[in-house]
Amino acid sequence: MRIVMIGTGYVGLVSGACFSDFGHSVICVDKDKAKVDALLEGRMPIYEPGLDDLVERNVTAGRLEFTLDLTCAVPEADAVFIAVGTPSRRGDGHADLSYVYAAATEMAEHLRRGAVVVTKSTVPVGTGDGIERIIREARPDLEFYVASNPEFLREGAAIDDFKRPDRVVIGVNEDTAGKVLREIYQPLLRNDAPLLVMARRGAELTKYAANAFLATKISFINEIADLCEKVGADVQDVAHGMGLDNRIGARFLQPGPGYGGSCFPKDTLALLKTGQDYEAPLRIVEAVVAANDQRKRMMGRKVVQALDGDPHGKTVALLGLTFKANTDDMRDSPAVAVVQALQDVGITVRAYDPAGMEQAAKLLDDVVYCENSYDALEGADAAVILTEWDAFRALDLARAKELLTTPLLIDLRNLYSRAAVEREGFRYVAIGR
After folding, report:
1. For 50, 183, 320, 422, which has the most beta carbons within 10 A of its beta carbon?
2. What are the residue numbers of the active site?
3. What is the location of CATH 3.40.50.720 in the chain?
4. CATH for 2-197, among 3.40.50.720, 3.40.718.10, 3.30.710.10, 3.40.50.2020?
């Protein structure tokens, strides 16, 4: 199949590269010349394990191309995927669909007869109707189809998620569009990946509902962790006991400093706005959003309280800045709120992250960015683990103790056992334990 992917961000680049690895001919289009030039030179605009090798392999094989020119790419395409950003709109939380509709407008004059336009971007219910209306107004006699194919990729594990998905969701209002998408995903279907075909609006809502539910699990276990600290229970025992129930499952029951990233924050807000627009308020999701905002600020206060006494003039070493491991994504990272809370009370922040410091520097001022974990620890009054990078799971605690002015480890990801840390002479502060 001949595929055009509009947008070379996280979703578009990973999806385009994986489709080409299936044997399809893929052209990725982007308006950002610097990004396209970098991709043509083999440099990835995002950090994602294995992506550079995947792109290089398929470019070399002639199955994957990058261009700025949509007008040359679209006319031959069997399917055109829209994978542009849908950030929260300033002021009201609605998803900003300007990039989606601009892509539809620009491609309309160049679509071939029978082409399928597919929204890969996360879009509110009814967006497919809007895309169809835009193209129909420009080409009233054209036979074309609009489908929804939401992505369910985890940053840091996106390639594996794409090639070994829990499910592939396709939203179509015509059988012809369904047949085209089924052919595109045929390599996955041979591996028994579940293919769910539903109406277009159902597919659009499925992505938002899934992300909101996962965000709810995270916020729920975070609040249970707070209760565990008050009553003297261990949240890891509680989460394990919950997770063994196959109606609940263990995933997303790890307490921490709150969710962030490119999906959960904006998607929960967009879902809330959709509920308001259709007079179907989503009170549980509303509570989740509020709880998560409070959670991030609470983590800053937790660090300050652990320092004891007057925090002014003290130094804290932050290990991890990105919202999760194996990504350089700083969007809505808990680190932003934590750093601001520490700086507000006069604490100096030294920080190290394996991939996120370049992005962090754009958001966080007056932070000392360090070369490695131990550089960050030197002279600090406490070490704070904020992101669950593997590099922080096996620190040399004896060396860390020598570098710190005070042997205090604040583990906001529960990577260590209390017994092991205290055996090395540390005071250990964790989440829900």
Report:
1. 320
2. 263
3. 2-197, 199-433
4. 3.40.50.720
Give me the residue label for tokens 């609009």: 146
Structure tokens at 295: 């959670």
pLDDT, tens only, 158-186: 999 999 999 999 999 999 999 999 999 99
410 and 214 Cβ atoms separated by less than 8 Å: no
pTM: 0.93
> Any idea which residue has 């395409």 for tokens?
77
In one-letter notation, the amino acid at residue 45 is P
- Residues 396, 401, 405, 411: is their CA dihedral positive or negative? positive
Which three-class secondary structure string do you get for the chain? Answer: CEEEEECCCHHHHHHHHHHHHCCCEEEEECCCHHHHHHHHCCCCCCCCCCHHHHHHHHHHCCCEEEECCHHHHHHHCCEEEECCCCCECCCCCCECCHHHHHHHHHHHCCCCCCCEEEECCCCCCCHHHHHHHHHHHHCCCCCCEEEECCCCCCCCCHHHHHHCCCCEEEECCCHHHHHHHHHHCHHHHCCCCCEEEECHHHHHHHHHHHHHHHHHHHHHHHHHHHHHHHHCCCHHHHHHHHHCCCCCCCCCCCCCCCCCCCCHHHHHHHHHHHHHHCCCCCHHHHHHHHHHHHHHHHHHHHHHHHHCCCCCCCEEEEECCCCCCCCCCCCCCHHHHHHHHHHHCCCEEEEECCCCHHHHHCCCCCEEECCCHHHHHCCCCEEEECCCCHHHCCCCHHHHHHHCCCCEEEECCCCCCHHHHHHCCCEEECCCC
The structure tokens listed for 149 are 């194919």
Backbone φ/ψ region at 367: left (φ over 0), alpha (ψ -120 to 50), beta: beta
Q: What is the CATH number of domain 199-433?
A: 3.40.50.720
pLDDT digits (tens, 9 = 90+) for 79-125: 999 999 999 988 788 999 999 999 999 999 999 999 999 999 999 99
